[in-house]
Amino acid sequence: MSDRDAAFEAYFAARSDAMRGTAYLLCGDWHRAEDLVQQTFTKIYQVWRRIQRQDAMDNYTRQTLIRTFLSERRRGWFRYESVGVPPADPPTASAGPTEERLMLLEALVKVPPRQRAVLVLRYWEDQSVEQTAELLDCSTGTVKSQASRGLAALRGLLEEEKVR
Amino acid sequence: MNEEDLNEAFRDVMVRSTPPPSMDPAHALDRARRTRKRRRVRWAAVAAVPLVVGVGAAPTVIANYSGHRSVGQMVAGDTGTAQPTTRPVSTVTPVAPKTRKSKDPWPEGQVDRTATAGPRATRAVTLMQDLRSAVPTGFGTPDLKYPDGRRMSYPQSQYASNDGEQDYWEYMATIPVQKDDRVGQLLVQSTTPDGKPATTPCKVAQKFWGGTGTCAVVDVGGKKVGVLTTKGSDARYDQWAAYRYDDGTVVVLAQAKKSDNDARSPLKQPVFTADQLAELVTSPKFKISS
């Protein structure tokens, strides 16, 4: 195995789980999350020489993951697919922790993709407004407005779920 | 639900989720390699078309694309400890391979590709100083640091050849360039002759970090320089010039309005025009041939 391949394998082993967690929140489904991670790392492998430092590599990987997700959404690959296996009974307001988790995931995947990406980057990945803007290639003002709209949408969706 | 609630909710989702087993790195590598190979073959096929028509040498070209190269000392450590239910943080420590693929020792007593001391390391430091001295009036080259305390300026010299190739070295220097409170980045890289045949200026430029974009050949007093301007925000550098000397030494000079330091605002204008970049890359001070 070449140095490049060994380094790639090591990097994948170390970082793919964390990236898959982020992908899971974006997609709401572990299988799709894995597909997204595989696509991301395949792209990373193509440009391995360009990525020299670990922090830059993590950032580049994160950016590639987000852009791959948004790009796929634009192409409509996921458009008509439901997310994961729906629960047999809709979660209710008095549901337990597992149902609440499903409720959040169900609501999250209904939030528009770009707003969802902002929410995941800001509140799961703990990226700053500036870093999120860089990752999404937009202005900080856009990040703030998307985060605000995303939160409002999520809030509304969760209220709807509780009423059902 | 406010921001804090969502933060907690995300954490709760991940804690309570039952993720499938970790993905297999070997499988991921295999898929990545197959994708890379497919792309290379596709490009080789495109390149082979005129050859088939004109020379009839396409099979040789395609055959030459079938292998894969090992490159770089850019390696990541294998902690194997990242869990999907933990917060994503950068915890990986770079670890260098201890031997080459051929099991031969690294040259000149090194423990990996990088020369951290000795004359080769000194050459990279000199290269960095020469790069600083080339920055035009109006820009500064302060000793800036990343938020974690590391210097943004860094020199590097590394043994660049792969198994089966003749020995050659890469000397590289990166510096931040400041104007007002905005910071961009310059990089210079000089590669000693690698024994490979000469090629066009644009191919030389495109070889640098697999660069894609538009390339123009600029004539600098009879020297042909490839100047590549990248297309999008994925590239770490906006533009670079590449020049191959007759002895095979290749120098690349790259500029980016945005530095690697996300905490710094990018420059409003590039440090050099394309012509200036092309002229500077031919400067003998950046040429390191051994």
Query: Structural class, from helix and strand content of chain B?
Result: alpha+beta
Tell me about the biggest sheet of chain A? none
**SSE order of chain B in H/E notation?**
HHHHEEEHEEEEH
- Uncertain segments of chain A are 75-95
Radius of gyration of chain A: 17 Å
- Gross morphology of chain B is globular
Q: What fraction of residues of chain A sit in β-strands?
A: under 5%
Structural class of chain A: mainly alpha
Number of strands of chain A: 0
Q: Counting H and I runs of at least 4 residues, what is the number of helices of chain B?
A: 6
Rg of chain B (CA only):
22 Å
- The proportion of residues forming helix of chain B, as a percent range, comes to 25-40%
| N/C terminus separation of chain A | 55 Å
Strands of chain B, total number: 7
What is the topology, as strand order, of the major beta sheet of chain B?
Answer: 1-2-3-7-6-5-4
Count of alpha and pi helical runs of chain A: 7
Pattern of helices and strands of chain A: HHHHHHH
Mean pLDDT of chain B: 77
Tell me the layout of helices and strands.
The complex is a heterodimer of chains A (164) and B (290).
Chain A: H1 3-27, H2 30-46, H3 54-75, H4 97-108, H5 113-123, H6 129-136, H7 140-163
Helix pairs in contact in A: 1-2, 1-3, 2-3, 4-7, 5-7, 6-7
Chain B: H1 3-16, H2 25-54, H3 58-64, H4 119-133, E1 154-159, E2 169-179, E3 182-191, H5 201-207, E4 213-220, E5 223-230, E6 239-244, E7 250-256, H6 274-281
